[in-house]
Amino acid sequence: MASDAALDSLDDTARIARDLIRFDTTNYGEGRSNGETEAAEYVEAILRDLGLAPELIDSAPGRTSVVAHVKGRYEHPIDRSRGDRPALVVHGHLDVVPADPANWSVDPFAGEVRDGLLWGRGAVDMKNMDAMMLTALREVIASGGPNRDLVIAFFADEENGGEYGSHHLVKTRAELFAGATEAISEVGGYSVELAGRRAYLLQTGEKALVWIRLRARGTAAHGSRVIRDNAVTKLAIAVAALGQAEWPMQLTSTTELLLGELARVLGVDPGSLSADELLERTGSAAGFLTATIRTTSNPTLLTGGYKHNVIPDTAEALIDIRTLPGEEDAVLEEVRRIVGDDIEIEIVVRDIGLENPFSGALVDAMVGTLQRHDPGAEVLPYLLSGGTDNKALSELGIVGYGFAPLKLTPDLDFPAMFHGVDERVPLDALAFGHRALTDLLRSY
Q: Which CATH number covers residue 347?
C-alpha cells in the first residue's frame, strides 16, 4: 500500500478518482443499487467551486445525476441561433458494477495506490474519466473557458442501461441538452500496441443491447421422484444451447475500415488472414475487438429452487446479448429458435446500437489531440462491444463518440479491467488523459 506521503503527492486527477472510488456506488441492476447520491454531491461541490451552477436530479431515491453548463468563449461574434458552434456534451457515469472483495487483492472500494496504479472498482469504468473531466474543466475555465458551450453530465445507472440516469433525463429534462449536437464519453482514445507501434482506438459506435430473462416452468415435486418435466433441466438445456451458439461473422462499415487499417499498420496482406485472425494480432485489444464482428449471447446469472430435495416449478436465467446495430429483431428470432417454445423469453432491457462516421470536425479534433500528445501514433476507429450513455443521447439527435484518452503500457490487459477483478489504471495514464482532454475542450 502507498504511504501517506505518496498519497499526498497524488495529482488532482488521481486524487479525485480515488475519492470517487471510495463511494460504493454499486449497481446490481433492475433498480437495485447502493445509489449515486453521495458521489453526485461530491461532484456537484467541485463544479460549484469552479463557479458553475450544477443541478442535482433524482430519478428515484438515491439515484442522482448531475448536470452543469459551461459557457464557451468565442474569438469572433457568433449568432448562436444559427448553430455555428453547437454545444458539446461531455459525460460520465457514477455507478459501478458489483465487486466481490474475496476475489480481489485489494479492497475494491479503498482507492488504493500501488505500483504506480490506482486500484478499485471504477478505476477504469469510469471514475477515471469522471476525474479527468473535472480537472480538465478546472484548467479550461481558468484559462478563459472552452471553445464552445459544454454540457457536463455525470449520470446515474449507466450499468443498468440508464433507466434511472441518461434515459430518465432525456425523457424528462431534454432541455438540459438543448443546442448540443455531439458528445464524448468512455471507452475510446486508449492505446494499444500493434507490431511494436502504439495506436489509439477511437470509439465511433457501439453494439445494440438486448438483456433477456429465460424462464422455464415445470412440475414441483420431491427430489427423489422421476420428474421429466423438470424446470431446471429444461432451463439448463436452453442456457447451454444459447451460450454455445456460434453466431456468424458480420462486418459493418466501421469494422471493415478497422480491419483495413489494422492490416496496413501490421504490414500484412488483408486477404491472407480471416477477420478473427487479424483481430487476434492486436494483443489484449482482441478482448474487445473480436466481439465487434458478431453477435454475442452470454449467460450471466441462474436462479431456481430453494432446497436440495425439492424440484422447483420455475427456473430463470439472465442472458446478455449484444447485436450489431439494427440486428436486434433478427437475433431475437434466432434466440427463440435456439431455446425452443417451452422457454419463456422476457426482454429486461433493450437499447439501440450506434455507428457514426470516422470523419468530421470532432473526429479530426480528437485524432489531432492524440497525435499532438503522442506524435507518430496511429488513431483507428472501432465499434465498442458494450454500450454507453451515448445511446440515450442519440434520441435527441446527439452523435456520441468514445474519447477517454489513456496512454497505456502494453503489459496492461485493458479490456480485462472492465467489470473484472483487480481493476486498476496507471497514474501516468490519468495524467496523460487529463492533458489530452484539457487540450480538446480548450481547442474544439
A: 3.30.70.360
Q: Is 300 helix (H, G, I), strand (E, B) or coil?
A: strand
Both 146 and 65 in one domain: the answer is yes
Alpha carbons within 13 angstroms on the beta-carbon side of residue 297 total: 24
Which three-class secondary structure state does DSSP give residue 400?
strand
pLDDT tens digits, one per residue of 16-48:
999 999 999 999 998 999 999 999 999 999 999
Distances (CA, A) of 301 to 169, 239, 312: 29, 10, 17
Q: Which of 307, 259, 285, 129 is nearest to 192 (CA)?
A: 285
Q: How far is CA 140 from CA 149, 419, 434, 438, in A?
A: 12, 31, 11, 6
> Cα-flanking dihedrals φ and ψ of residue 26, to 5°?
-60, 130
pLDDT digit string, tens, across residues 312-336: 999 999 999 999 999 999 999 999 9
Whether 244 has a pLDDT exceeding 50, the answer reads: yes
Q: What is the pTM of this model?
A: 0.91
Cell, residue 326? 439494427
Q: Is residue 251 part of a domain?
A: no
Q: How many domains does the chain have?
A: 2
Judge if 220 and 323 occupy the same domain: yes
Q: Give the structural domain span for 166.
A: 4-187+387-443
